[in-house]
Specification:
Elements (H helix, E strand, L loop, with lengths): L6 H11 L11 H11 L4 H14 L3 H5 L3 H8 L6 H13 L16 H4 L7 H12 L8 H11 L6 H11 L5 H14 L35 E11 L8 E2 L10 E2 L1 E3 L8 E9 L3 E11 L13 H11 L2
Parallel strand pairs: 1-6
Antiparallel strand pairs: 1-4, 2-3, 5-6
Helix pairs in contact: 1-11, 2-3, 2-8, 5-6, 8-11, 9-10, 9-11
Bound molecules: iron/sulfur cluster.
Iron/sulfur cluster (SF4) binds next to helix 9.
Length: 318
Amino acid sequence: MVAQLSQSSLLAWYAETKRDLPWRHTNDGWKVLLSEILLQQTQVSRGIGYWLKLVERFPTPQSMAEAEVDEVLHLWQGAGYYSRARRLHSLSRQVCLPLSEGGYDGVLPTTSTQLLLLPGIGPYTAAAVASIAFGEPVACVDGNIRRVMARQTKTANPSVKEVEHWAKRNLFKADAGDWNQSLMELGATVCTPKRPKCDDCPIVLSCSGKNDALSYPQPKTTRRKRLDLMCELRYDASGLPLLVQRGENGILAGLWGPRMAEQIEVDSLRFIGEVKHILSHRDIFVQVWLGTCQQGLDPETLALSSLDRKVLALGSRQ
Ligand code: SF4
């Protein structure tokens, strides 16, 4: 017979051992939102530097709304998943619209229901921001919480509904922000995917799956996609590369870089090598072909992805 999940043990453990992360020193909704959007697909250790740069340059929704999207993309360089930066910029502009035009007069809304209506905000981000910054008693569900739930309840393949139900049932409503963060922190630091530290776990007494933790949850079988591209890397006489801004759609939307496509004409170009770029859901292989151009651009002044910078690094070694 397992015990009930002890909220007080988990909250006490969190208060004592939580990582000192810069966004944990603020309850400014906009700054919390920036951290949550960054952490959607960027590791915590890398996210810290990006968050510090973002809050310094864009301390309010107004400051971002008044900037061009290119500047947001420029700060986002290297963080990946650039559509997040574009949607964040749209969000800031929507928040800054007058109330009469469907905006919020520059003040971030405070409820998860309102947040969910903004660009780039899904149920997780809405619940995280509303609970952490505004104290709304609403439960979060992310990958860490799903893993803790699966192990606590010995459920091999919990559905989203089942995880939501468990998270709601166990929510500590008096401090939902700390509660949600404590569960996520447990999943990130103790109940980890490969090496759960059950001996250090504050909720071990209620855990049905602790003796066979690695069986829960069962890994999802997702097949990685492969994308093969060709790149036309041209330099002018002073060594600056020809860069173009990409369109609104696609994985590198809005960013600058050398021209890339699935097929390019290579008659006057020289093959110099292949660049491999791994994203969480796909592997990109880029064949790079070198040539000349009349007039290049300074890449340091533009927003480029990590993939583009790898291609330029290969070109600079020729
Ligand atoms: S006892 Fe182990 S498996 Fe269970 S929640 Fe804690 S760390 Fe995870």
